[in-house]
Specification:
- The chain is an all-alpha fold and about 190 residues long.
- Helices cover about 80% and strands about 0% of the residues.
- The model has no long low-confidence stretch (mean pLDDT about 90).
C-alpha cells in the first residue's frame, strides 16, 4: 500500500524530534549546560514542554477533525521543526523560553497521534489490527535509533547540529506526507 509506505517513512523520519525519546534524553542536559540551571529549574522548563504535550494532541486533533488530518499533520511537522530548532537561540532561561517550550510540546507531541490517525484512514477495518501492530513496532524501533544517532551527533559536532537534525527530520516527514493520497469519502 503506497500510503502505508509513505506514512511509515514520515513516522520514521519524524522520530528524531519525538519528545518521548530524543528530547527527553538531551533537552534537560542542554538546559543545565547552556543556562547553568540546577536540576529542579531545568525540570521545570522540561515540564513546561510536557504541559504542551498534554494539550497539543487534544487541540491539534480537534483542529484536524475540522480541517484535514493530512494538512494539519504537515503543518504540525512544520511548526515542530521551527520550535525544535529555534529553542537553541534563547539568550537566557526566562518566561519566553517557557512559552516556547509549551508551544514546542504542543506540536511535537501532536504529530504522533495525527500520523496514527492517518494510518487508520489508509486501510480497511479488517487489516487495521495488523497495520497498527506494524505501526507500533516501527515506532518503538525508530525512536531509540534516532536517540542513538542524535547522541552521536551531539558528541561529535555539538547541540546545534543535533537540533538542526531533529528539525530536518520533521521537514522530511512533512515531505513524505505529501505523497499520501486519500480517495474522497463517499456520502
Amino acid at each position: 500500500n503506497r500510503n502505508i509506505m509513505f506514512l511509515t517513512l514520515a513516522m520514521i523520519a519524524g522520530a528524531s524530534g519525538r519528545g518521548t525519546n530524543v528530547l527527553s534524553t538531551y533537552l534537560t542536559t542542554y538546559l543545565v549546560d547552556t543556562y547553568h540551571l540546577d536540576a529542579s529549574r531545568a525540570g521545570f522548563f522540561f515540564s513546561a514542554m510536557m504541559v504542551g504535550g498534554i494539550v497539543g494532541p487534544i487541540a491539534v486533533g480537534w483542529l484536524a477533525d475540522k480541517i484535514s488530518h493530512k494538512i494539519v499533520c504537515q503543518l504540525t511537522l512544520l511548526a515542530a521543526a521551527f520550535f525544535n530548532f529555534t529553542v537553541i537561540y534563547y539568550p537566557c532561561a526566562d518566561w519566553f523560553l517557557v512559552t516556547h517550550l509549551v508551544l514546542a510540546g504542543v506540536f511535537m507531541w501532536a504529530r504522533g497521534p495525527l500520523i496514527e490517525t492517518l494510518f487508520t484512514e489508509a486501510t480497511d477495518k479488517a487489516s487495521l489490527d495488523t497495520l497498527l501492530s506494524i505501526y507500533y513496532t516501527v515506532a518503538f524501533v525508530s525512536g531509540p535509533g534516532w536517540t542513538l544517532v542524535t547522541g552521536l551527533v551531539i558528541d561529535k559536532f555539538g547541540v546545534v547540529p543535533a537540533f538542526a537534525l531533529m528539525a530536518a527530520s520533521y521537514l522530511l516527514g512533512m515531505i513524505f506526507l505529501a505523497f499520501v493520497k486519500f480517495e474522497p469519502k463517499k456520502k
